[in-house]
Write a structure and sequence with these properties.
mainly alpha, 410 residues, single chain, globular
C-alpha cells in the first residue's frame, strides 16, 4: 500500500502543481467540452472488458488467468468497434471533430484496466505505482504542452489518451503464454464469472452514466461554462480519493479474496468467497482510517474553498471554488467510499451492490436536477451533498455490519 500511495502521490502532485497553469491555458468552456468527451469515453471504457478483468485477482491458476485475459481482449475488440460506430453517430449530430477520438480512448482505457488488474493479481505494486505516475502526471504535462502548441480542446482530449497508453505499456500485459489456454477454458470461465458482466457491468456503466448525465444536464441548463466549473472542481477535489482509493483497493481486494478462500479449503472453487471475521474487520479499519483523513478535508473546503480556487487557478475559476464548498460533504463521503467498491466483489454481493447503486445514482441525478432548478449551480452542489450523505451513510453501515458466513468460527 505504501508503494502504491507513494506512486500515487507523485502522480497526483503533477496535476495539482500544473493545475494553476492549465487553468490559465484553457478556458472554462474548453474544459466543459473536454469533460463531456471524458465522461462519455469513461462511460464506455469502464465496461470495455465486460468487467471480466476484475475476476483476475480471484484466480490462482496461471492457465485460467491467461484464458480469462484472452476473453477480456476479445470483448475489448468488440466494444471498441461498437464505440467507433457510436463516434460516427456523435460526429453526425454535433459536427465536432474531437468525437473521432472516442474509440481510441475506449480501446486504450480498456487495455489499461485489463493490464492494471493483471498486475494487481501478480502483486506487481512497483509497476502499478510507476504506471499511475505516467498516467496522471503524464496527462497533465501533455495537456500543458498541447496548449502551448495551440491544440485547444483536441489537446485536452488527446493528452490523457496518450498518457494512458504509456501507462499500459509500463505494465506490459503479456499477450501469449508458453502454454496457450484451451479454447473451452475461457468459455468455462465466462460462465463461471458471469456475475461480472451480468451484475458488475451494469453497476459500473450506470455509475459512469451518472457523471455523463450530470455534465449533460449542466450543459443543457447552465451552459458549457458551468460544466467546466463542475468538471474542474471534481477533477481536483477527487484527486485525494484517486490517490488513496486506488492504493487501498488494490491491496484490500487480494486480502479479502485470501480471507474468503481460506475459510473452507474443500469448498467448490466456483462458489462465492465467504465473509470472514478478519475480512470484515479489515473493511471496518479501512473505513475508520479514511474517515479520519476525510474530515479535515471537508472542513478545509467548507471554510476556504472559494478563496483557494481563486488564488490557485485565477479569478475566472472562483465559481468552481464556490461549488467546491457546496460539494465538500459529498467529496468527503466519496473519499471513504471509493476504495470500498471491491468489497462487494470479494464478498459475492454484486447483486446487492447493483440494486443499491441504482438507487444512489437516481438520487444523485434527481438531487442535481432539483438543485439546478432551485438555485443554479450552487443549488446542484448542495442537493448532491445532502442526497449522498444519506446514501453513503446507509452503505457504510451495511458493510460494517455485513453478516458473517455460517461456517465462520466463533
Amino acid at each position: 500500500m505504501l508503494t502504491l500511495v507513494a506512486g500515487g502521490a507523485v502522480a497526483q502532485a503533477l496535476p495539482l502543481l500544473l493545475g494553476p497553469w492549465l487553468s490559465r491555458l484553457y478556458t472554462p468552456q474548453q474544459f466543459g467540452q473536454y469533460n463531456l468527451f471524458a465522461a462519455v469515453a469513461a462511460n464506455v471504457a469502464v465496461v470495455a472488458c465486460a468487467r471480466y478483468e476484475f475476476a483476475l485477482p480471484l484466480l490462482g491458476d496461471a492457465l485460467e488467468a491467461a484464458a480469462l485475459r484472452t476473453l477480456c481482449l476479445r470483448v475489448l475488440a468488440v466494444v471498441t468497434l461498437a464505440s467507433a460506430a457510436g463516434a460516427a453517430a456523435w460526429f453526425w449530430g454535433s459536427s465536432q471533430g474531437w468525437t473521432a477520438w472516442l474509440p481510441v480512448a475506449v480501446a486504450v482505457l480498456g487495455w489499461l484496466s485489463l493490464a492494471t488488474l493483471w498486475a494487481t493479481r501478480a502483486q506487481a505494486y512497483r509497476a502499478l505505482a510507476i504506471a499511475r505516475v505516467v498516467q496522471y502526471g503524464g496527462a497533465s504535462l501533455a495537456q500543458a504542452g498541447a496548449a502551448l502548441l495551440g491544440a485547444g480542446v483536441q489537446g485536452l482530449i488527446v493528452a490523457p489518451i496518450a498518457a494512458a497508453a504509456a501507462a499500459a505499456a509500463v505494465l506490459r500485459l503479456p499477450l501469449k503464454d508458453d502454454v496457450p489456454p484451451a479454447p473451452q477454458r475461457w468459455r468455462q470461465l465466462a460462465r463461471r464469472f458471469r456475475d461480472f458482466p451480468l451484475l458488475n457491468t451494469p453497476h459500473a456503466f450506470m455509475g459512469a452514466l451518472q457523471d455523463t448525465a450530470a455534465i449533460a444536464l449542466l450543459i443543457a441548463w447552465q451552459g458549457p461554462v458551468a460544466a467546466g466549473f463542475w468538471g474542474f472542481a471534481l477533477r481536483y477535489l477527487k484527486a485525494p480519493a484517486t490517490l488513496v482509493g486506488g492504493a487501498v483497493s488494490q491491496t484490500l481486494y487480494p486480502q479479502l479474496a485470501a480471507h474468503g478462500a481460506s475459510v473452507d479449503h474443500d469448498a467448490d472453487a466456483h462458489a462465492p468467497l465467504r465473509v470472514t471475521r478478519e475480512g470484515r474487520a479489515a473493511v471496518r479499519r479501512v473505513m475508520a482510517g479514511l474517515a479520519a483523513v476525510a474530515a479535515p478535508l471537508v472542513l478545509l473546503l467548507s471554510a476556504f474553498g472559494p478563496w483557494m480556487f481563486e488564488w490557485l487557478f485565477g479569478a475566472q475559476w472562483r465559481g468552481a471554488g464556490e461549488l467546491s464548498r457546496a460539494l465538500a460533504v459529498y467529496i468527503g463521503m466519496h473519499f471513504v467510499a471509493a476504495p470500498l467498491a471491491v468489497v462487494t466483489l470479494a464478498w459475492g454481493a454484486q447483486a446487492w451492490a447493483l440494486r443499491l447503486a441504482l438507487v444512489g445514482q437516481v438520487a444523485f441525478v434527481a438531487a442535481l436536477a432539483a438543485g439546478l432548478k432551485l438555485d443554479g449551480l450552487q443549488g446542484a452542489g448542495w442537493g448532491v451533498s445532502i442526497a449522498m450523505v444519506l446514501y453513503f451513510g446507509y452503505y457504510f453501515v451495511r458493510l460494517a455490519t455485513w453478516p458473517l458466513t455460517d461456517k465462520e468460527p466463533a
